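Repro:
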Amino acid sequence: MTNAICKAINKISALSVKETLAKCYYLFAKKGMDDRTYTHLSARVPGEKAYYIYPLGMLFEEVTPDTLIKVDFDGNIIEGSEQIFNATGYVIHSSIYAARPDVNAVFHLHTPAGVAVSCQKQGLMPLSQFSLHFYNRLSYHTYDALNLNIDRQGDLLMTDLGPDNKAMILQNHGTVTCGINSEEALFYMLFLEEACRVQIQALSAGIENMLKVPSDIATEACQNMTDFEKNKIGVRDFKAMCRVTQFPWHS
């Protein structure tokens, strides 16, 4: 395959990546899962050491494919009209992409439920089927102020995420999910959010009254749910949500 053909394929793929990422921003906004201008979603640019992310100062509901900017792994903006983005986003997203070639999308949120569970010593408990998506597959990262130091904090993030996990709780902070594409990162973030909401509501009855799923059953259920989705985790749900959503741009 010639370089020209490869570049043409990557260009088409990049347009699709931007469209999907922008839709994810909008879907989170409609679900009330954004935090004004303080959280961020990104997707790796096909064939490049760079990723798409929204510019600092926009609300999730304002994001369109055309407003996304392209940032390289060194934090340089290489495409986009807005010449600024969230510095904490650079540390989180660049660190994960550089260390995990299997990851092509990284989503970070600060929902009340996610933050509430991130403040609990026991972390996410195996209480609901939602939570079993993450049984023995969820990482934890100790709070270390704002993520502004790529050398120290970026390395710690990657060490804590590990080589395989697709979700992480940033203690006293929020949540992160990853995926081979934006659809998978969205899938895990929505289930993580639902698991956190159920846990917070269930704990109102007291932790001594919690009915946890036994370890062997939780392990089996986690594998069952992964097998059920096969190799297209999140694609079916994403298409379904898009069918009933009117996006503020022509797609």
